[in-house]
Known about the structure:
It is built from 3 helices and 18 strands. It is an alpha+beta fold. Strands 8, 9, 10, 13, 14 and 16 form a 6-stranded antiparallel beta sheet that branches.
Amino acid sequence: MAKSKSGGTRSYIRGRVGADVYSIGRDAKGAKQQVVRSLAETVANPQTIAQMRGRMIMSTVMQAVSALRPIIDHSFDNVPTGQPNISEFISRNYALIKADVEAHPASNNEFPLVAYQEKNVKGGAYIVSAGEVITTLDTDEYESKEVKVTLAADSTVAQLKAAMGLGSDDYFTWVALKYNGGALYCRLRFNPAVSDSTVITADNKNTIFVSEGNATVTIGIAGGEFTFTFSDGTSNSPSCSGVIVTKKETAGYKHSTCVLKNYDMPEYNSAASDKVLPSYPIGSQMYLNGGEL
């Protein structure tokens, strides 16, 4: 209880009333006293340019996390699965985006950056897996929706496994980000019900693999090539993609290192109508996240 100047006592209060926030503090002698703090009605510039840029970078990373979570929660070797893997993704890619912004403040960015609180990832050269798995697969083929493997006519499943550098317990995952937001992935492994001695033909090619994910795959065999063509079921192309090769070892599954590659990105430039670094409102003004006012 506190004594009032007009006599009597009153209780100390806590909480907010209108624009005033009430709390209980101590005076210089250590006695309790009522503390009242008024909230600011207007804030001219609550963030520095560096803080705004940091928000933009983190927003970009977190939109990617939201889309890629089914992949990145277990794709970094020697890091515990779940949140530690996701934290590894955030740390690595925050650094990449920050360097990209600093190197290309007006154009040619590898990451189509998103504004604070903007929704939907737009693509970018994200590291989605990291490990020491060595693969004989030509990763340059993975810059598009089509993956090709050289294969002689009348080859068997065993010969296809050798050409791809994969065993019966291994698999590979095609992963992509879409222009309009969201991620695609398709995980393929050899069908255990199909014998290694089976000769691959146009009639049985669709039985060689089992797949899972939200992307579809069309398998073709022609002209000495075995092809995997991935799609989301529409004519839309992903903005970037890559393939993670996963092998079963004594200590568990291990991964190859995979960076999503931009192969069909729109050109960004510094024209007023096409700002590569987006803006978001602070008070009554608009600030460009790249550092220009």
